[in-house]
Amino acid sequence: MRENEKIFKKRLEKFQRLLKENEIDGAVIRTLSTFIYFTGTKWLRPSLLIPAEGEPIVIVAKGEKELFMERSWIKNVEEFQKTEDLMAMVTVWIRKNGYNTIGMEFSIERDAYILFYEIFKRLNPGVEIEDVRPLTMQLRMIKDKWELENIRKAGKIAVRGMEVAVETIKPGKSELEIAAEIVRELMLNGSEDPKVYVSATPRAHAEPFRDIKVERGKFVTVVIGADYNNYYANMTRSFFIGEPNGRSKSAIEAMERVHQIALEKTQPGVTFAQVEREIATVYREKGLQEYYITGYAHGVGLLIEEDPITTIVVPHRAMKAQKGMVLAMVHAPLMIPEGAVKKEDTIILGRGLENVTLFDASISP
């Protein structure tokens, strides 16, 4: 975004300092979220070349240059017509500058294709490749004021989507029908790339099925990721259809308790593992430990799930929460036979904790 040029230049300068400190000559950025982080705009099949010293270069397809330059602060924009031209341009950039070590992000994210990596190695056999994802995430984990403003706006959109979920969920409705109504609402409110998961069976982060219907005596869990200016807020609610009792009631009570613990205990300087142990104690006391999926928090930002990812990356559980982080918690569901039970909000860690997805509603038709 050209109107926020100073923000993006500052990010680039910090990253270039990290490249120098790690003796990396330059970085080839192909992952979409990091491309957005530095350029300020979303672009399909991104290619961003960042030298440790000097100006960055963006490579786009022929005919895209003018629009890209309207949407980004970066002035060095080149075009390619054939895929082989793109790869050649990257190789020429490396050889012309005499680079020996190049950074790439090793990620499963969109556009971080192993195919590109393999072709790059064949074209540049003498170049050493370093994973710079730890460096980009080091920057991205701590959000600035502009990022927090966007996340707050995304939170309001997410809440609106959950309100529609409450209106839509009824026995006999399919997961897909419910998801469609939520996605529509999110997009109408400005979310360009919403993520919506609906599960009426015990599945975590479930892509909605058209043939699975809402049933009485079961949970329906709705996960929403709403974005604004590419920044996400993430929230989840589980709704019981009918009157919960026995194991279902215990699961709801336990989830409310661990949600409260997460909000109280996740403070700057506290390790995620410390809080995780307290959460596990609650489930053990309730006799629900066999249904608990470990990992209660993850970062939120340009991705719905990014570092620190205690839900996926076990070493991240030893990390300490820091001021400026934005976390989704409690992420891990209880996977009981009646369905997935989960309550998740997006929290900004500052002097206190700010919940940007406050929402309280239940369904028991």
Automatic annotation (TrEMBL):
Residues covered by the Creatinase N-terminal domain: 11-142
Signal peptide range in chain numbering: none
InterPro entries membership: Creatin/AminoP/Spt16_N (IPR029149), Creatinase/aminopeptidase-like (IPR036005), Creatinase_N (IPR000587), Pept_M24 (IPR000994), Peptidase_M24B (IPR050659)
Coiled coil feature spans: none
Domain Peptidase M24, chain residue ranges per copy: 149-348
A Pfam family hit: Creatinase_N
Alphabetical list of PANTHER family matching this protein: AMINOPEPTIDASE, XAA-PRO AMINOPEPTIDASE P-RELATED
Name assigned to this protein: Putative X-Pro dipeptidase
The organism of origin for this protein: Thermococcus paralvinellae
